[in-house]
Amino acid sequence: MVSEHSVSEHTDSEHTAQVLVASNRGPVTYAFREDGTLDARRGGGGLVSGLSAIGPDANALWVCAALGDGDREAVRRGVTEPGVRMLDIDAAVHADAYNGIANSVLWFVHHMLYQTPLEPVFDAEFRRQWDAYRTYNRAFAQALADSAGPSAVVLIQDYHLALAPGMLRELRPDVRIGHFSHTPWAPEEYFRMLPDDIAEELLLGMLGADRLGFLTWRWAQAFMRSCPPVLGPYDVAASWPKDLAPSIRVAGPGSARGRTWIGVHGLGADAEFLRERSRRPDVAERLIALHEQIGVGRKVIVRVDRTELSKNIVRGLRAYEALLDARPEWRERVVHVAFAYPSRQDLAVYRDYTAEVSRVAEEINARYGTPGWSPVILHVKDDFARSLAAYRLADVALVNPIRDGMNLVAKEIPVVSDAGCALVLSREAGAYEELREHAITVNPYDVAGTAEALHEALSMPDDERAERSKRLAVAATVLPPKQWFLDQLHALEALGEGGA
Ligand code: F6P
User: 163: which of 2, 37, 292, 293 is 20 to 30 A away, CA to CA?
Assistant: First the structure.
């Protein structure tokens, strides 16, 4: 969830190959100022921090899509930052690929978000959008092929670019290709809701990479389980014992294909950055404002999310309501600070969900609130400093996604919280694999169960909460972004040229 970052001076000088990164959303975005000039805003996240590990002299290139008018104008004026190549893909093609396929189909499949009696519907419109998804992936593959030096290492990101590895492999057999999935992978049966030919194309596209990275073993295994049934006409040899370097080899029909190695890299929180950033004056200012809103002596349950369907914000609010209902002793003694920042507002289903989050929060405040107590403090405007302030004062962190690739918030709050926090964590979050031992874990659909978990977390003695929080912070920071990135890079480099 980190959305702002600094660049460290500690860099890795071990690798020699040119490094290219490809992702839909790049590290910078451009907006028009009133006078028509362009303002560059830098983003954050694990990838930005990770790439900084190889330092400015490494001749790295980040290929991304131009996402708005400001980006497109920056491309036209030729003013994009050095080290960034933005692709000005036709806006309608981009919208079909990003909103239509990536976010309305692939995201829904991997997070199991469909209401299956009525959806999905794979009709002629879907096929038209799939063509756009191909075009968009081809634009990336071509740009990477044009920009990569001999034997370069190319790290392709996420479900937006599932076809790009195979397309790039055809254009440039000499480069080493990695693909990393930042999402979960659907269970085999759910994945097979996709039309057979599309599922096959998607898997073969990814298997064009030399190495596929996942955030957890659970998602890696789900991917591997999808391969044999979907790739029926091919000869698929999959081996997935966890400790024996799993790989998939696909042969014929047509040409022989290579082996794809599978790796797991559980991205961790960036403790150094978070601890320093959360002590700056703008965070202290937000802390004072939040303290005033919360009132004296109350416990605080914090959640910070994009308003994303998979984050399960509405059930989280309902669980809090159930707590106030079933355990009236908490009334006036607890506040739920919920930050739900805008996401994918081009999609009606996200706009509706955003409205529902606000409606339910208002309903709880109307039902239980008193003149001196607002049970829920909801903020919907993205403010990184305010998120860190909330992290600092959290007694309880609520992270209850329906399904989530990792969920970095679950890792960040224990690192930042001043007095230590208890973590209520969904068993469907990737972070569950590493944090479950010290968290209070929940079934995300079980609202009554989540209410009880909140009660348990709020009731935890201070010393136990502080101790558990310390252990959570240790587990959360095992693989900081720079090491996460370097591990992938070194694994690919170790494969030698052309993935041999
Ligand atoms: O979880 C997958 C992911 O691509 C993340 O890497 C990213 O934080 C998130 O989705 C954001 O998606 P979008 O670019 O659609 O806002």
Answer: 2
